[in-house]
Amino acid sequence: MARASIPITEYFSQESPLATEYRRLLQNLRRMESPGELKSILVTSSVTGEGKSTISSLLAITAARKGRRTVLIDCDIRRPAIHRLFQLERYNGLVEVIGEGMGYKDVVKKTSLENLDVITAGKLIPQPSELFNTSSIDTLIRELKFYYDFLIIDSPPVIPVSDPMVLAQCVDGVILIVKAGETAREVALRSVEIMKNNQANILGVVLNNAKNRLPYYYDYSHYHYDYGPRGFADGRHGTGGRSAGSGPTGQSNPPEPAASSPGKKRTT
Ligand SMILES: Nc1ncnc2c1ncn2[C@@H]1O[C@H](COP(=O)(O)OP(=O)(O)O)[C@@H](O)[C@H]1O
Ligand SMILES: [Mg+2]
Fold it and tell me: Is this prediction's pTM over 0.90?
């Protein structure tokens, strides 16, 4: 992201239309809770660059602002991004916990939000796949569930990497990000197939980049709510105008989560 020197918590305005979308996504997740709880959510997608890290960060911030004690965990140890988004030290994170036996309390990092903590990816290791096994991840998630209300897990993509499948088996539900205009239908379907084959509880799809690709559908002015800042958050970015904001090239803006959100309960 372009605003690398500012933590994402600072430029994600609660008053932006984008924040409304995230609150809606969170509400949809809550509505899906009965009968089982959805305390741990894996955010994944087919390939890199579809918005997993940004969307998981914004969802975690939204939950924390709503008063839920939240922890965001960077499980993409090949291409970690959460430490950058939050301006935190990458080291002393997930790798040190599940690879070296450090306690989560020794690595968890505070953010400017009282209810939001972060576990960054940790140090670089030569063979990341070896780190991921169901028992160590499961143990960590169980422990975190005891201390937090909500766990958001940012993960690597499903198609090139097998780690998300291990993670998917340890969480209550999985959100799949699809990037409008970029994720090929067959590729998204393949991801769903892989996850289903691994008994993942796919909660639904979040459509990223919808405003850019489906402008009429996503134009807030169409719904007479075009009063907020343009683009992402603070009014200084974005193009202004009715459906102002981000797009595939608008790197200074945040990802648009989608109007669509988890739609189905268990698809497995
Ligand atoms: N809808 C969007 N509009 C503008 N930029 C976006 C959008 N979605 C993602 N990006 C940007 O694309 C890049 C990749 O996003 P990221 O969240 O790191 O994806 P992933 O974790 O899936 O690899 C980042 O620079 C992010 O800011
Ligand atoms: Mg990422």
Answer: no
